[in-house]
Amino acid sequence: MLVGMGMSDTPELSLPDVVTRDEWLAARKALLVKEKAATKARDELNAERRMLPMVLVDKPYVFEGPDGEASLLDLFDGRRQLIVHHFMWNYDVLEDGAEVPKTTGCPSCSATADNIGHLAHLQTRGTTLVAVSRVPQSYLAPFRERMGWTFPWYSSAGSDFNYDFHVTVDERVAPVLLNYRTEAELAGIGFEWGPARRGDYPGISAFLRDGDRVFHTYSTFARGLEQPGGTSAYLDLTALGRQEAWEQPPGRVTGLGAGAGNPDLRFHDEY
């Protein structure tokens, strides 16, 4: 267990200026103007995200869940939308390049997973959230139990899923596309691709179901994973968004949206 540092052990920090209450209030109001502008810009960006086209996913991916095999359609669990956390795993890499899974997942992905809230608020808006990792299910279940997580977690081992959605990158399997950059584009920004960079990368992907047809609507990587964590932030990554009347483009209100102050918003155990 880590022991907190005493005041005498704290390194010298660059702290905010000390001002009067009136000076603080003036500075806070000035910042509020910028915060409101950022909120408006975020709303506009979310609307552009919802207006992205979508791609039919017709490859028959097979996943392994705690109850056996599942298709990508099965991962929706009957709901209209699916959010997938691409969860990295830890491997030992042998001299011949072979990967040997460790018993734990990526610490960074695990910290992100610790911030996933109660799923009822997503599910009542017709949206399922799952995690998918390349390691076999026999590794996932014990680690999930140890960490106390309750979100569904599937293995994509043996399928092309991770490679097709560019969260496992290996030029021997598929052309490099890392955070939407090719190998040549990566080299152009000083990021040289090589064998040591092969492997898993974190990401989030969103899918939409129309009957039995599944469409890929969005994926984000790298710092794009910093924002999600709450219900609204996750919904903002999807094609249907928060499903509230004020959102653009029009025509995507499902009747399931329930924003703050809405009488339809309930405690998670009342849905």
What report would you give on this structure?
The strands form five sheets. This protein has a six-stranded mixed beta sheet. The chain has a single domain, classed as Glutaredoxin (3-Layer(aba) Sandwich). Helix content is 27%, strand content 23%. The chain starts with 20 loop residues before the first helix and ends in a 36-residue tail after the last helix. The protein has helices spanning 21-50, 72-75, 107-114, 120-123, 137-147, 161-164, 183-188, 231-235, and strands at 55-56, 62-65, 68-71, 81-86, 89-93, 99-105, 127-133, 153-155, 168-169, 177-178, 181-182, 199-200, 203-210, 213-221. Residues 1-5 have low confidence and may be disordered. The chain is globular, with a radius of gyration of 21 Å. The protein is an alpha+beta fold. A hairpin with a 2-residue loop joins strand 10 and strand 11 (181-182).
Average of per-residue pLDDT values: 88
Order of helices and strands: HEEEHEEEHHEHEHEEEHEEEH
Second-tier CATH architecture: 3-Layer(aba) Sandwich
Q: At the third CATH level, what is the topology name?
A: Glutaredoxin
Q: Total helix count?
A: 8
CATH H-level homologous superfamily name: Glutaredoxin
How much beta, percentage-wise? Answer: 15-25%
Distance between the termini: 38 Å
Low-confidence segments? 1-5
Q: Based on DSSP secondary structure assignment, what is the total number of beta strands?
A: 14
Largest sheet: 6 strands, mixed
Number of domains: 1
CATH class (first level) name: Alpha Beta
DSSP helix fraction:
25-40%
Give me the Rg, rounded. Answer: 21 Å
Helix-strand makeup class: alpha+beta
Give the quaternary arrangement of the chains.
single chain
Physical arrangement of strands within the biggest beta sheet: 1-14-13-4-7-8
Describe the global form. globular
